Amino acid sequence: EEQEEDVLRELRLFLRNLTERLMLDRRFKAFVKPVDIEEVPDYLMVIQKPMDLSTLLSNIDEHKYVTIKEFMSDADLIWQNALEYNPDSDPADRHIRHRACALKDTMRVIVRDELDKDFQRVCEEIRESR
Ligand SMILES: COC(=O)N1C[C@@H]2C[C@@H]3O[C@]2(Cc2nccnc23)C1
Asked: Alpha-carbon distance 127 to 123, whole Å?
């Protein structure tokens, strides 16, 4: 019903604002666009489900997410993939893992501090009703 679409519109506004803030943070530059498969030819041999902030933004606009949990499942792929593909002790790998951990923590803190718990529950009820 219309009230449900009002709720989902507000969720999309929150998710776009969150994603755009992450995209503007220079620590997360490596996560803004998909890893370039021409530059990194073995990437898809290691990573089954690539994800990046621009793809998250497209998914939001395509109404893919009805709950914060669904969004976070995709968003978590970004830092999980980075930890998996860059596991070595060399400085470059350690640097991107550090940024991946900062992305994980930053997302969670913003959601905890800024997404109302009752609003989250309403979104879950909509998902369960569909
Ligand atoms: C989220 O980003 C990543 O997981 N990576 C891993 C790739 C390995 C290394 O850094 C990345 C891009 C790149 N391009 C050219 C040569 N080497 C690299 C970014």
From this structure: 6
